[in-house]
Design goal:
single chain, alpha/beta
């Protein structure tokens, strides 16, 4: 199931914090706007469950996103995202502050992104992951590209890969039998 380069799995073994972008990673990047300016987003339920499983297996989760949206606040609460940073037009300072507060090194962090605004973090994180439909430059500078597109299971694939690398995948799956 996990035909992934050994160097990627080695990087994944040390991850203690998984950070996700929202638009294009946890969603397919489409923004729905109502006449009243209300923003709507579609999230993949399997991605959310994957993030919950990751936390249950000892890896904290965070969101760093450039947009500010109430729907993201609700989604983060729904799937127990502990660290939510919205409106981060410059994502790198938010990342650096977060890992300093948590006492982590960049090698202990993973970032899942899709666009060039994610590159500053991706170039520093211990494990940089691009979704399948990411910008070509983002794919070029990532350690791994998910088989699935953003908003279509890519986050779940990442979560399961990290659990596999850390030796928790089989036990986690066994819980459902």
């Amino acid at each position: 199931m996990f035909d992934i380069d050994e160097s990627v799995l080695q990087r994944a073994q040390t991850i203690k914090l998984a950070i996700f972008d929202v638009d294009g990673v946890l969603t397919n990047g489409t923004l729905f706007m109502g006449d009243d300016g209300q923003e709507y987003k579609a999230f993949n339920s399997r991605d959310g469950h994957g993030m919950k499983m990751l936390v249950a297996n000892g890896v904290e989760t965070a969101i760093i996103t450039g947009r500010q949206s109430d729907v993201v606040t609700h989604r983060a609460r729904d799937i127990n995202i502990k660290y939510l940073h919205q409106g981060a037009l410059e994502k790198l300072p938010v990342y650096e502050k977060l890992i300093a507060e948590l006492g982590l090194t960049p090698e202990q962090t993973a970032f899942v992104g899709d666009d060039i605004v994610d590159l500053p973090i991706m170039l520093r994180a211990g494990l940089s992951v691009a979704v399948a439909d990411a910008h070509p430059m983002v794919k070029e500078h990532s350690h791994w590209v998910t088989p699935g597109a953003g908003g279509c299971g890519a986050a779940r694939e990442f979560c399961e890969m990290v659990m596999f690398a850390q030796g928790n995948y089989a036990a986690e799956m066994q819980r459902y039998f």
